[in-house]
Amino acid sequence: MISPDWNHIRAFLATAETGSLSAAARRLGLTQPTLSRQVAALEGDLGVLLFERLGRTLALTEAGHELLSHSRKMGAAADGLCLAATGQAQSIDGTVRITASDVMSAHVLPPVLHQLRQRAPRLTIDVVAANDIRDLMRREADIAIRHVRPEQPELIARLVQEATAHFYAAASYLARRGRPVSPADLANHDFVGFADVERSIAFMAPLGIALTPDNFRIRSTSGLASWELVKQGFGICPMMDDVAAITPGIERLVPGMDPIVFPVWLTTHRELHTSRRIRLVFDLLAEFFAAR
């Protein structure tokens, strides 16, 4: 019976999912020649050709397609094994990865990180500042702070805060363009776009703010960059009130306007929730947000 090396299967799986040896090597932290040798070794063990080269990319052969689903199951099993092992760890040391948006990572989390340093000085906290949703199942993070509730049954989610936001602009911008006094007035101003403009327009419409793409002449995929552009007087954007409160030179617009309310969900994997170090961080984060 053939018993292929798991490292060789992992190399095949990464190559199949990325479509190239170089990308697969980067994902696994290997050199390209090493990864290529591992794929070739698997082909030798199985006696089949798994890839064929099409220009600069690799395409799965029929045999490769046949083995891919089995390899993915093995990969999921390996991820589950790592999750279970991490869940059994009971020492307050090691690394805990927290993922949150770049704005929250930079402006909201530092006070609770100070508390964590005092509570567990041997613990290493890796803040993954990213505006996409990181995959807890693949251990890209141990704890996620999100504004939408995850749907996967393997995840534990706790609603820890109903945060608020308003529209803000720099005093320099308002001195130049005037201060809007109603939601409808905002349609006559420049906005600094963040993420998808069409979604932003759709979000603003029920608030009585009729915007078009022409309102978004400056935009960025980075929340930190967008907020900096607002500070520099390029236009208006909605922002968490907690962040705006600690930003000098910024004014809240249309004071009588109802706040934008959005949830803050704290999420981790069920297996990880039995880890003493991850439970400590999870509970401290929950207390921190609940007190805000």
From TrEMBL:
Keywords: DNA-binding, Transcription, Transcription regulation. PROSITE patterns: HTH_LYSR. The keyword RNA-binding does not apply. One of its GO terms (biological process) is DNA-templated transcription. GO terms for molecular function: DNA-binding transcription factor activity; sequence-specific DNA binding. The keyword Plastid does not apply. Pfam families: HTH_1, LysR_substrate. InterPro entries: LysR-type_TF_proteobact-type, LysR_HTH_N, LysR_subst-bd, WH-like_DNA-bd_sf, WH_DNA-bd_sf. Residues 4-61 form the HTH lysR-type domain. Signal peptide: none annotated. Belongs to the LysR transcriptional regulatory family. This is LysR family transcriptional regulator. It comes from Leisingera methylohalidivorans DSM 14336.
